[in-house]
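Predicting holo structure, pyridoxal-5'-phosphate bound.
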Amino acid sequence: MPNTVDTAHIQSLDSAHFLHPFTDFKDLNARGAKVITKAEGIYIWDSEGNRLLDAMSGLWCVSVGYGRKELADAAHQQMMALPYYNSFFQTTNVPAATLAAKLASLAPKVDGRSFEHVFYSSSGSESNDSNVRMVRRYWDLLGQPQRKVIISRHNGYHGSTMAAASLSGMSYMHAQGDLPIPNITHIEQPYFFENARSGETSDEFGLRAAGWLEAKILEVGPDKVAAFIGEPVQGAGGVIIPPATYWPEIQRIVDKYGILLISDEVICAFGRLGHWFAYEKFGYKPDLVTFAKGVTSGYIPLGGVLVGDRVAKVLIEQGGEFNHGYTYSGHPVACAVALANLQIMESENLPERVRTDLGPYLASKYAALNEHPLVAHAESCGFVAGLVLVKDKRTGERFDPDLSVGMLCRKHCFANGLVMRAVGDRMIIAPPLVMTHAQIDEMVALILLCLDLTW
Ligand code: PLP
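Done. Tokens:
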């Protein structure tokens, strides 16, 4: 690709004016941001003409791959017809209503419970803020205003606004900005590799980890707990895949105490784990489901909450006006792009392809990575995967966190044409769902090369 971008100029504008999210500004200014200029399929290009295989789908977003004309066409057509109109004052628009019905039809019903309603936002963070508002409103309307506490998990990620960052279990986020806000508390994550006792099976660990929820409910007082929120598989925390026993036991516990269950599927929905929604895979019945990212494959911002019957009935029949919402709730262009994106996913059968073909193929390749001297544990679930890098595989000795082995590995990835994300000593991927087997082979060969260079 010809280099038509003046990299140094863009970098100087960037460092002078653009404060990047989750970034050490001074450090970035010293090195200069990589300027990404174009993308096609599963590859991105920087302004120097280097091609990188994007094993992170941007930021867990670009499920249908880059360069899909159908999505650009949908945005163009909708912009020409109706680029924006609000949905506050008793108006709606065609894409927003159509998409809400489509999402309702895609969400699997479990034990007769269905999701007939959608509350829209523009991001995962906003959606989780909406969850906090809806959950509190629900219990107020039921005459139990003391039920305010939402339980979440350490190392879970639910976003970066004040409420969503509070739900997130990242201590480094809480350390800035006096978080969490009141009435949000955390339990430990179900991370087998780190938290299992010696000799404990995965199933035993899953039950014990779910038990931490019951202990917390009893500590807080069951009549004060409003909801539990979790990601089906923790993504930003490092692709932490829970044992099979975990979610069914969580379901048993929330049922026992009558508390609401929120499934944050910002990463896991829309085929990423081989299902339209991941609660189906793990066999639980949430009351609210957060979505964003994959709903538009990241081509345009859109998020929201699928509102299950239990909550919707109370909000609609008893609620009166709900004093919450966003200028861009039900944005017509974002919803039109989402409809076109879901149509691609349906016509290319992406959830099923991940479930029956791509996911198992990736799993077999990842199993082989366990042979590498640097890898203590490699695992995948659908089309997310993680590797734990250790200093000494025999003893399990971990790297000094300050040396950041992950950042070193990521540097080798960047230099060798691969985007893979580092979370401490875990290397994680979430590739586009449109990969071929040959492209999975190519990605795994690059991962091996970068592991060798890190070793
Ligand atoms: N929830 C989960 C599970 C996420 O992974 C993320 C982002 O990665 C969010 C919420 C926040 O989404 P956003 O960055 O769109 O606000």
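The first strand starts at residue 36 and ends at 40.
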